[in-house]
Design goal:
globular, 5 helices, about 15% helix, alpha/beta
Length: about 290
């Protein structure tokens, strides 16, 4: 989830109150019109934002969860959503699967007013060995939540619903009415927002009734994680590590696109869904910006 530009590095994850997981699978298909859903068994590619992967944890081999005997590791199922929410409210850091990579998450909302969450944000930076000048993104539970934190009224009707939920990070302006605290990623007028196509993390966001600060579960500068084994050396820093199996999307992470300018878009990181993302943006009459001079 490291983004090769100054603006792209800064995204946390926020969420709002809404019903919890609609099903017991972690990153299974949702009744949404967003990019694509994920499954442990890859299905054929389509021209939408990415291959559909209807990710059902119940179909995982039981051996995949042997690691749950190791204390902090839990299966990423609906039954463990409340547990994850309580850990976040206590100011803890957890590791979770998304529709792209595994990530470290904490409660970003209480970061605004609660020192325990402020400490959790700092702890994520420490765990990763990440510079505090590199911003975090926010992750929200539903597309409608985005308007609480970022400016979207300049975007074509239906664009957000066409892109999300899915493997895309949208960089948007915060605006004066944004509910984000200025101390979150200070000095930046923009914020990266995700709505992953993953029931588990969205269920946590909804149960928390707020937002998650999210970043990839790896040491800064090291390869991203598609399996909990990839960051086993960092488990000790997490209250819980949620097992979602080996993620099938590869290590490219989400596609990051800057949508701060009216009628324009700029790809900041190609990620796993560049082609499909660009097609959707152009279908909504947005023009791609060239490289900065």
């Amino acid at each position: 989830m490291n983004i090769p530009t100054k603006i792209a590095g800064r995204f946390p994850l926020f969420l709002s109150s809404a019903p919890l997981l609609p099903s017991s699978s972690s990153c299974s298909s949702l009744p949404s019109r967003g990019l694509r859903s994920l499954s442990l068994v890859p299905i054929l590619h389509s021209r939408r934002l990415r291959p559909k992967m209807a990710w059902s944890l119940e179909k995982l081999d039981a051996a995949a969860f042997e690691v749950t005997q190791l204390g902090v590791v839990r299966p990423a199922t609906e039954a463990h959503v409340d547990e994850a929410v309580e850990a976040l409210r206590a100011g803890k850091v957890i590791a979770v699967p998304t529709d792209t990579l595994y990530g470290f998450a904490c409660d970003a909302w209480y970061f605004l007013c609660d020192c325990s969450s402020l400490e959790a944000v700092h702890r994520i930076y420490e765990i990763k060995g990440r510079k505090h000048t590199n911003p975090l993104a926010i992750c929200v539970g539903d597309v409608l939540d985005i308007t609480r934190f970022a400016v979207t009224d300049h975007l074509p009707h239906g664009l957000l619903e066409s892109l999300l939920p899915g493997p895309v990070t949208l960089v948007l302006r915060r605006g004066e009415s944004s509910m984000l605290e200025k101390s979150l990623n200070p000095g930046l007028e923009s914020i990266g927002v995700r709505v992953p196509d993953c029931n588990f993390i969205r269920g946590i966001a909804r149960g928390l009734g707020s937002a998650l600060a999210l970043t990839s579960a790896n040491l800064s500068g090291q390869p991203s994680s598609v399996s909990i084994k990839d960051f086993e050396n960092l488990w000790e820093h997490c209250a819980y590590v949620y097992q979602g199996g080996v993620l099938p999307s590869g290590r490219a992470g989400s596609t990051v696109v800057d949508l701060t300018r009216l009628g324009k878009f700029k790809i900041l990181r190609s990620g796993s869904a560049r082609e499909e993302t660009v097609a959707i943006l152009e279908r909504h009459s947005l023009e791609e910006e060239g490289p900065s001079s």
